[in-house]
Amino acid sequence: MKWYKGSQEITTGFTQQTSINSDGCTYNGVSILSITPTYLDNGVRYTCYVEPNPAVIGDSSKQGRYTLDVQYPVPQVPTVTSSTGTFTVEQGTTFTLNCQASGNPSPSYVWTSPDNTNTTGSQLVLTLSTTGPYVYTCFATNSLTTSPLPTRVTVTVQEKTTTTKTTTTSTTTSTTTSTTPVAVASSTTELLTCTGGEGLHSTGVLAGAVVAAVVITFGVAVALFVLYHVSRKKLQFYFFHFSFLTRI
Question: Among residues 66, 37, 34, which one has the least CA distance to residue 49?
């Protein structure tokens, strides 16, 4: 029996036990792989591969697959970019600020503007007609984030120059603005359960979390169980099962 993370074989971190049944012809086996997932494990597939018994004619390999759905808070401040490629624009230019962050569940976003108004969504479309600096703040959060993480950018609006054949005129109006970041409420973390069966499965696991009995909370490892039933004459049946370890 072998374990794989993606296409890479795992050589440590698991146990394996077998026991012969009372009929003396079959035996049962269980292999347990313990892992402590991080956000980097989100979407990673683990596979247990049971090799065929060469002494049994017609025996074939069996495998069970388990895809991790790792729940984790927004790990770092969001990234803000501008559709123009710069935060310096001319008067009257329409442009878009984009805010992006990682997290599972997917983050939600709130923008605060210099006039202290709030706008939801990852994009903020602006058309500024008055010159001066403008500070915009994007907050990113999800249901596991305790405090929304902000990123502030300063947009500088320059005067728009009009050129004629004889003269060039320009006007500048300076406006001073300020903004006060607002807190964005994050919802209570939901408790998740994890079940398994034959074939491919996907279930919730908290990043860096402990898997205890039925409920997944922060602090322990996930245990992936594989059970199989083998006959000395023929591999009779096989099934893939998952359970959990208590807090460690």
Answer: 66
Per-residue pLDDT tens over the stretch 9-34:
999 888 888 888 887 777 788 889 99
Res 115: pLDDT: 94
Q: What is the pLDDT of residues 202-226, one digit of tens each?
A: 445 565 544 332 233 333 355 555 4
pTM listed for this prediction: 0.60
As a whole number of angstroms, the distance between CA 59 and CA 162 comes to 83
Distances (CA, A) of 3 to 15, 113, 129: 11, 51, 61
Written in H, E and C, the secondary structure of the chain is: CEEEECCEEECCCEEEEEEECCCCCEEEEEEEEEECCCHHHCCCEEEEEECCCCCCCCCCCEEEEEEEEEEECCCCCCEEEECCCCCEEECCCEEEEEEECCCECCCEEEEECCCCCEEECCEEEEECCCCEEEEEEEEEECCCCCCCEEEEEEEEEECCCEECCCCEECCCCCCCCCCCCCCCCCCCCCCCCCCCCCCEEEEEEECCEEEECCEEEECCCEEEEEEEEEECCCCCEEEECCEECCCC
Residues in the chain: 248
Question: Structural domains in the chain?
Answer: 2-72+207-244 (no CATH), 79-169 (2.60.40.10)
The residues facing 206 across adjacent strands are 71
